[in-house]
Design a protein that fits this description.
This protein is α/β, with parallel strands linked by helices and 902 residues long. 47% of the residues lie in helices and 17% in strands. 52% of the residues are buried. Bound molecules: adenosine-5'-diphosphate and magnesium ion (2 copies).
């Protein structure tokens, strides 16, 4: 019986019952609190309500049966252990109610501190703290503020304004100057705000506070900004969050108390050392909110050496235990250190590589694990350009390099404006005093984020690092005035729309557009930095991990390149051939005229002479590419787009004809072109006369291209290079199409190649669903398949990319119909299934069939893993993605083949 089951179901775990492997159930925070508890670290006691309880609540809108009783039982045991009762008027136990999902979502979910305080227990709390009224009332006003804001949706500014008013009345800017009476007054003001917005008094019943807070955490899973963050980070929407109920410890008891955050290594560069911020006489959220300026963690040694040494000891323990960079939240209550959170810390792309390398050196992990710890998205970030600085550019301010990269753009001051301008294709820099979770959309839209407050662990810094977005935080020379849409710095005023440049590595801020140069990692790939001779931890780590990836991977990586220059660059980046050389650009520019002649040809002779003129031009193009790719395969795709793409647009031609007629000029050619464009007009050009269809309809077109390829290969071979051409026929849906093209091509090849030793393969794209479904037949006529996953996605889903991405993808993403655009990452179940079927049936018919992919998916990390699993021979992607694909192909082996050492 369902009801019986849920009564028996365990929804609540004491910290002593959990461990770090239980993240699915207990969330990251709960699992790690349990792990620290069991390691013997000083964690305040508490319990975790599982993600399953949250999911049940969200599904039905009420707490599942049995949950209330289990919370009661765990609360009682917590009260027994602490020797205090929740909200007791004489000697209250207070708790925090903290969200914690499987994946850390900084600032996304809600936390309420000091639950259990009310008009009576505030007096008891003061007594507990030796008559410290100030502390008690400060804690109470914090509860009303956090509870109001996060549980009851009271606008947070109202509380902040009331706090500002109190400070102003006192003539101070520092909240520490408010005394007990001021804070008591503030509590009254807060209660009024609360009542005004909720239509009820602030709840005095401790258990009601607790239950409402737990419920609010459950519901915050579906808060808009949490949904946006998950979508951005590709975190599944159905995990739910756990809730942690933790006995309060107090960092706001005086100058011998405080709270802080720490990293076991620098999350920016990966360098070893002590990184963190500390704030005396404060509660946790003050540190990350940037409310007062924090001091570097090192200063804690001077303030409280005993706690400092103890903390360093725990940090070393945690690193050793997690075998990774940890980030830590702690509080000191009157000289006693408490550990409030740890997790494997977020880090920049550079730090990820450097730390993985260090951990191998330290013997904590092996190279497979190091490969697993980095990813292609991080590598792609390291390939972003950097500022090229000469004396022309002087920084106007220097903040903290919170998330590396070089970004220039127009200044905006609000999230909404950032989204607006970015949608118009502008690069924007979001400038704020400090960011908060409501700025998330703007942060996503911006190229970079600049704040005047906050440290390495501020909201802006943490979120930007997670997104891989350039961020400078705490540039306190900036005087930011959001309502007036301007900031001033070094005596200058910068308005919305002015351009600034920010360097997230050095923290420097420049006015105007600073030019950029290739990053060190790109210089290394290009061969201008030798890792052995470079005193650069990052380049050495990248080299080492890439070498391991190359040794591990089974997928070859080719590139999409249409010119010799692209081919050469891709080869330096490690491309092992060309997977897609498009030939359409060879019909553009000054060759348009020949193409027009071809299209307008009235007789066989006209047409043949146009083709004959194109032949040497194409041959020269191919020779250049074959030379650059000496010894490596080059897949050339015969012409694919509809021919009218090579003609001027209809409207323009119509105008030309009219104007020429007006002037009495000869309009015969214009008129002929216009007629041709009208005749060739298609309702659905994507599904019209293109690809192989064109080759079958226009005599001699494919033949000319095949001849150019074969002749180029022979010519290059004669010069001593090795050409390995592979001719690829686009848009095949039936084996008969391919057979017809192939019969003609083979004749030409045999004649041209003769005894030159050149071997030319003939294969096909698989991009029409029918081709995938009849792959067994098609393989009889094809020596290779190359999956054109862009078209396969368009035709598999039945939507045209150019039309749909702007029209309705946002809604599909919102509804979760797909988690990410299927053009960005392959849709494994649908389009991927077509790939799988074609690969299997193709190989069954012809075991030596070569299989590759040449759509943009070839450079997408997740898709590369899929192609590895399906057993393709290679992926092909744009030159800049080649290193990313190499890395991910290596990671796919360590991850899917079970040699993962974790
Ligand atoms: P987040 O997920 O945003 O980091 P947390 O649940 O960690 O939120 O809470 C924010 C801060 O509140 C913590 O960094 C910690 O300093 C403080 N905090 C949470 N629980 C307690 C507690 N039981 N005692 C004292 N401070 C706490
Ligand atoms: Mg925290
Ligand atoms: Mg295509």
């Amino acid at each position: 019986m369902a009801a019986q089951d849920s009564v028996d179901h365990k929804y609540v775990y004491d910290f002593a019952e959990g461990n770090k492997e239980l993240k699915d159930l207990l969330g990251g925070k709960g699992a790690n609190l349990a792990e620290m508890t069991n390691l013997g670290l000083p964690v305040p006691p508490g319990f975790t309500i599982t993600t399953e309880a949250c999911k049940a609540y969200l599904a039905t809108g009420r707490e599942p049966d049995g949950l209330a009783g289990q919370i009661e039982a765990h609360l009682e045991s917590l009260e027994r252990g602490m020797g205090r009762k929740l909200g007791d008027p004489q000697d209250p136990l207070l708790v925090s109610v903290r969200s914690g999902a499987k994946f850390s979502m900084p600032g996304m979910m809600e936390t309420v501190l000091n639950v259990g305080l009310n008009d009576r227990s505030v007096v008891g709390l003061s007594a507990q703290a030796g008559g410290n009224d100030r502390f008690a009332w400060d804690s109470y006003r914090r509860l009303i503020q956090m509870f109001g804001k996060t549980v009851c949706e009271v606008p947070g500014e109202e509380f902040e304004h009331a706090l500002d008013d109190a400070k102003r009345a006192k003539g101070t800017k520092n909240d520490l100057d408010l005394d007990a009476d001021d804070l008591r007054g503030l509590v009254d003001a807060y209660k009024k705000i609360f009542a005004k917005h909720t239509g009820r008094e602030f709840p005095q019943e401790p258990r009601e506070q607790l239950d409402l807070a737990i419920r609010a955490v459950f519901e915050s899973w579906n808060a808009e900004r949490a949904v946006v963050y998950r979508r951005q980070e590709r975190i599944p929407a159905d995990l739910g969050t756990a809730v942690n109920v933790v006995a309060m410890v107090f960092g706001n008891l005086g100058s011998d108390s405080g709270t802080g955050v720490a990293f076991t290594r620098d999350p920016g560069s990966g360098a070893q050392g002590i990184y963190g911020d500390y704030l005396a006489n404060a509660q946790g959220e003050d540190v990350v909110a940037g409310i007062r300026n924090t001091v570097p963690l090192q200063e804690l040694e001077r303030i409280d050496k005993k706690s400092y040494d103890e903390l360093l000891g725990y940090m070393a323990r945690l690193e050793e235990h997690y075998k990774d960079l940890c980030d830590i939240e702690f509080t000191i209550e009157r000289g006693k250190l408490w550990m409030l959170q740890t997790r494997v810390g977020k880090r920049t792309a550079a730090a990820a590589f450097v730390i993985a390398g260090q951990l191998v050196d330290e013997g904590l992990i092996d190279l497979d694990e190091a490969l697993h710890r980095v990813n292609g998205a991080q590598l792609a970030q390291l390939m972003f350009p950097r500022f090229k600085l000469d004396h022309e550019f002087e920084p106007v301010a220097k903040g903290i390099g919170a998330s590396p990269g070089a970004a220039s753009g127009k200044v905006v001051f609000t999230s909404a404006r950032a989204v607006e301008l970015a949608a118009e294709g502008e690069s924007v820099i979001l400038v704020r005093r400090e960011t908060n979770p409501d700025d998330l959309n703007g942060m996503i839209a911006a190229k970079g984020i600049l704040t005047s407050r906050g440290g390495k662990t501020s909201h802006a810094a943490v979120v930007a690092r997670g997104m891989g977005k350039t961020c400078v935080s705490g540039a306190d020379e900036l005087d930011v005035n959001v309502p007036a849409k301007k900031f001033t710095v070094a005596g200058q005023t910068v308005n919305e729309g002015d351009i600034v440049s920010i360097d997230g590595t050095t923290g420097k801020v420049y006015l105007g557009q600073v030019p950029v140069m290739p990053s060190e990692v790109v210089q290394y790939f290009e061969g201008s930095l030798e890792p052995e001779h470079v005193d650069n931890a990052l380049v050495r780590a990248v080299h080492r991990i890439m070498t391991h990836a190359d040794a591990k991977r089974r997928l070859a990586v080719r590139t999409n390149a249409d010119t010799g220059a692209d081919a050469a660059r891709a080869r330096r980046f490690g491309a092992e051939g060309i997977g897609l050389c498009r030939t359409e650009h060879m019909f553009l520019g000054d060759r348009r005229e020949l193409v027009e002649r071809l299209i307008l040809a009235r007789t066989d002779d006209d047409r043949e002479s146009a083709l004959f003129a194109l032949l040497p031009l194409q041959r020269a193009d191919f020779m250049e590419i074959f030379r650059e790719m000496d010894g490596l395969p080059v897949t050339v795709r015969l012409i694919d787009p509809p021919l009218h793409e090579f003609l001027p647009p209809l409207e323009q031609l119509a105008v030309n004809v009219a104007v020429a007629q007006e002037r009495g000029e000869d309009v015969a050619k214009e008129e002929a072109l216009l007629a041709a464009v009208r005749r060739m007009h298609e309702e659905n050009p994507m599904l019209g006369l293109r690809g192989v269809r064109l080759g079958l309809v226009i005599p001699g077109l494919f033949a000319m291209q095949v001849r150019a390829i074969a002749e180029a290969a022979v010519a290059v071979t004669r010069d001593g290079a090795v050409a390995k051409p592979e001719i690829m026929v686009p848009l095949v849906g039936a084996v008969q199409e391919l057979e017809t093209v192939r019969a003609e091509a083979e004749k030409i090849i045999a004649e041209v190649v003769a005894d030159s030793g050149v071997e030319v393969l003939i294969g096909t794209m698989i991009e029409v669903p029918r081709a995938a479904l009849t792959a067994g037949q098609i393989a009889e006529a094809a020596q290779f398949f190359s999956f054109g996953t862009n078209d396969l996605t368009q035709m598999g889903w039945g939507f045209s990319r150019d039309d749909v991405e702007g029209a309705f993808f946002w809604r599909y993403l919102e509804l979760g119909i797909f988690g990410i655009s299927p053009f960005e990452s392959i849709d494994r179940e649908g389009v991927g299934r077509l790939v799988r079927i074609a690969a299997e049936e193709g190989r069954a018919a012809r075991p030596e069939l070569k299989l590759g992919v040449c759509g943009e998916h070839g450079g997408d990390p997740d898709s590369v893993h899929f192609f590895h699993e399906v057993g393709l021979d290679y992926v092909s992607c744009s030159p800049f993605r080649v290193p990313v694909a190499r890395l991910e192909a290596g990671r796919a082996v360590v991850e899917t083949d079970g040699s993962d050492s974790r």
